[in-house]
Design a protein that fits this description.
- The chain has seven helices and no strands.
- The two termini are 14 Å apart.
- It is mainly α and 109 residues long.
Length: 109
């Protein structure tokens, strides 16, 4: 599970930059350091996982919604994407911890 979150975040960051946002804006929206976005873009950070078309579409839609300002806190949608990838019906441990801890864990490198 822990390899899924960096992979999801990396693709979201790449998609948002492709849609015209600066790395700094992406970092602010995803609550991460600009250096993390730079590392995602260069492939130095985030695991490379093949996504199903359904997961790719969910990531693309979340990225678009973030860029358009339709979503301000992506955590719930990221958890949904993780759930979709795992094919399960139960949230993973990163999605079931209290909000203040979840924010820290989801934003961990």
């Amino acid at each position: 599970m822990w390899d899924l979150l960096p992979a999801i975040r990396a693709v979201i960051a790449v998609e948002m930059v492709k849609q015209g946002l600066s790395q700094k804006m992406v970092a602010n929206l995803l609550n991460m350091a600009p250096s993390a976005v730079s590392q995602y873009l260069s492939g130095k950070r985030g695991y490379r996982i093949s996504f199903t078309p359904e997961v790719s579409e969910a990531i693309a839609q979340l990225s678009s919604d973030l860029v358009k300002g339709k979503v301000t806190d992506p955590r719930e949608r990221i958890c949904g994407i993780c759930l979709l990838m795992r094919g399960g019906d139960a949230l993973c441990s990163a999605c079931t911890v209290p909000d203040e801890e979840k924010n820290h864990e989801i934003n961990a490198p």
